[in-house]
Design goal:
Blueprint: H1 9-25, E1 30-34, H2 40-49, E2 55-58, H3 63-71, H4 73-76, E3 82-87, H5 103-126, E4 130-131
Parallel strand pairs: 2-4
Antiparallel strand pairs: 1-3, 2-3
């Protein structure tokens, strides 16, 4: 992850599932998951094992704007990514910068987005769940 690569599917899914189950037990009625799924297979497995997505929001932002925001994210607390809505109501609890917000890693993450994450946009658009 610190090198700009994706965390393995099973690890991410287990962490999300554990956190969601804990919140459901406390009475949560919905979730907003920032930056997930990063790959089509993550979305497919999530919907098989946990919950079908109601909607997926995609913010289409030019790379130069993303780079600028990511380099200044710790100060501005902006997050630009794919956001999935589950259930009926959602809340955002926090947004923050990352230790690996540097130019080399950002370039690698943008390349990863193009190859792995961009197909997620097409996938959910075909399912008529994508909101731009």
């Amino acid at each position: 992850m610190e090198a700009g690569e994706l965390v393995p599917l099973e690890i991410v899914l287990d962490l999300i599932k554990e956190a969601m189950l804990k919140e459901v037990a406390k009475g949560s009625k919905g979730f907003l998951i920032d930056g997930y799924p990063r790959e089509v297979k993550q979305g497919e497995q999530f919907e098989r094992e946990i919950q079908e997505a109601k909607s997926v929001i995609y913010f289409d932002v030019p790379d130069d704007v993303l780079v600028k925001r990511l380099l200044h994210r710790a100060k501005t607390r902006l997050t630009v990514s794919i956001i999935m809505f589950f259930f009926d109501h959602s809340t955002i609890t926090s947004c923050s910068g990352r230790a690996d917000d540097n130019m080399d890693t950002i370039k690698k993450r943008l390349k990863t987005f193009t190859t792995a994450t961009a197909p997620v946009v097409d996938y959910y658009e075909k399912k008529k769940k994508l909101i731009r």
